[in-house]
C-alpha cells in the first residue's frame, strides 16, 4: 500500500451528499439552469428569457380556472379500430402514454368558473402522444362543447398538438368536421368560444377547431401552423421570414387576436367573457 493511499484512507471524508434529480430544470430556449421551484412558481415561464414552457392538463386547468372545478368524465371510444402497427402496436403506445399521464387521452375537460364567470375549459396535453387528435380527443371536445351548451356558458379550449393521430387514419380526420359542427352550434347559441394557442399547435388541429374561435389568444413564442416550415419552404422555393409561424408573427398578420403572457391569461379570459356574454356575468 502506497503512502498516498494510507493517508487518503486515514482522512475523515464525509459521505457524499445526494442531490435530487429534479432540483434543476434547463430552459429549452436560453439553456439557463433554473431552480425547479422558481420555474414552477413562475408558471413554467423562464424568468431569464420569458420562454413559455409546455405544461400538463392539470397544471393548465389550475392556472385558468378558479378553485373547485370539476373534471368531466373522459368519453369511451373504440380503441385501435384499425389494428394499427408500425414499430409498435398502437395499443402499446397508448399504454405507454397512459403510464406517464393521469388522464386516459390527450384532451381533458373541466367545468368551473374563471374569476366567478361560469366556463367550461378543454385542455390538450402535448405530452400525451404529441397531443394528437384521435377519436378520444374529438369526442372529448364535443363533450366539452355540449356541457357549455347545457350550462349556457363560454367554452375555452387550450390547444397543443402535432396534428391528427395517424394510428387512427381517416377516423382521426373525421374529428375535424365533428368539432367544427360543435363550434357552429356554440355560435348559433350566442355562447363564447375562445381558443388559447400554445406551443405547438399544428396540423389538423390548426385546420379545424383551433382557428374557429370567436377570439384567438396565443402564448408568447408559440409555434402555430399547419405544415412544417421545411415543407412550406421546399414547396414555394423561397426563404421564409424570421419568426414565421410564431405567435407574434401571426398576430402582426391578423391570424391571432392577441398575444398574452401566461400570468395574464385568467384575467384576460374573465374580461372577454364579460364582453362576449355580458348577461351571464351579471
Provide a compact summary of the structure.
This protein is an alpha/beta fold and 282 residues long.
Describe the structure.
By secondary structure, the chain is α/β, with parallel strands linked by helices. The chain has helices spanning 3-10, 36-41, 57-64, 90-99, 135-151, 169-173, 175-188, 203-206, 229-236, 247-252, 265-276, 278-281, and strands spanning 24-26, 33-35, 70-71, 107-114, 117-124, 154-161, 193-201, 215-218, 258-259. It folds into 2 domains: 23-53, no CATH class; 54-281, 2-enoyl-CoA Hydratase, Chain A, domain 1, CATH 3.90.226. Helix content is 36%, strand content 17%. The strands form 2 sheets. Strands 3-4-5-6-7-8-9 form a 7-stranded mixed sheet, with helices on both faces. A two-stranded antiparallel ribbon has the order 1-2. α5 (135-151) runs parallel beside α7. The mean pLDDT is 93.
